[in-house]
Design brief:
The chain is α+β, with helices and mostly antiparallel strands and 257 residues long. It is built from 5 helices and 8 strands; from the N terminus they run βαβαββαββαβαβ. It has an 8-stranded antiparallel sheet.
């Protein structure tokens, strides 16, 4: 199998229009055919790898991601009696850089979503809910951008997405980042990063409480940097259990950075 990128910062292509992705293999072994039955990419016969970053129309290999991710959407509710499960919709899953860009370039930008809408990007098989078994012992770093008209929420959210799928928010083996969320509200945009634990102990009990908190703080610092939040402002962390008991996602933060 050809050696291709599997983690790290995700590069940004500049194709003139969305590229067809469904017939392109993860590796060039076996080839891929275009609509006329011809091999896609003039250089595939001699084994040369052509990625979307070399040729946005005739690439022959995808860049696999370390994890498979699923995009979810919460549509605006109609009233207090709305059922969360009915508002939350699974959109699509992907596991390569090229598939990510194919999806991102064809969904509504965050800045154009209706009020009370949310995008959620979570590792596949993890629902963006406090009650999910993989989330219930965790929490969330979050920051609210209150000057809606003065920020480029689309650019900020994109950088968060790239950091998540590029695995740059945590170190290898941390196994903390579950997903990221953006909330569109009348007075603010809020972006959150969900973690598996609240920093007390790592998966399988392999970390002490001090080590777990250090990992959590490191992730929070990286998240703050990706958001571009000034040093004098705070990014807050709250455990899901505390949020649920308070009845609000705006409960007093347990940790700030």
């Amino acid at each position: 199998m050809a050696e291709v990128a599997s983690a790290g910062p995700v590069p940004v292509p500049t194709p003139s229009e969305p590229v067809p992705l469904d017939t392109i293999p993860i590796s060039p072994d076996g080839g891929a055919e275009n609509g006329n039955g011809a091999t896609n990419g003039a250089n595939q016969a001699d084994g040369e790898i052509v990625t979307v970053f070399h040729d946005p129309e005739n690439f022959n290999v995808k860049h696999p991601l370390q994890h498979k991710w699923t995009l979810w959407f919460t549509k605006p509710g109609s009233g207090k009696g709305d059922n969360w499960n009915e508002l939350l919709k699974e959109v699509i899953s992907f596991d390569s850089v090229e598939d990510f860009w194919g999806i991102y370039n064809n969904i509504t930008p965050t800045s154009q979503l209706a009020l009370k809408s949310d995008y959620h990007l979570f590792k596949t098989n993890v629902r963006p809910e406090w009650e999910d078994p993989q989330n219930k012992h965790g929490g969330r770093w979050s920051y609210s951008f209150k000057e809606r008209k003065s920020i480029d929420i689309d650019s900020i959210w994109l950088q968060v997405l790239l950091a998540a799928i590029g695995e740059t928010l945590e170190d290898e083996g941390d196994n903390e980042v579950m997903g990221v969320v953006v909330n569109v509200r009348r007075a603010f945009f809020r972006i959150g990063l969900w973690t598996r634990t609240v920093g007390k102990s790592g998966p399988g009990g392999q970390r002490t409480n001090e080590e777990g908190k250090a990992v959590l703080m490191k992730i929070g610092a990286r998240f703050k940097e990706v958001l571009g939040v000034p040093d004098e402002e705070q990014v807050d962390f709250m455990g899901h259990t505390d949020s649920a008991h308070s009845g609000s996602t705006r409960a007093k933060a347990k940790i700030t950075i």
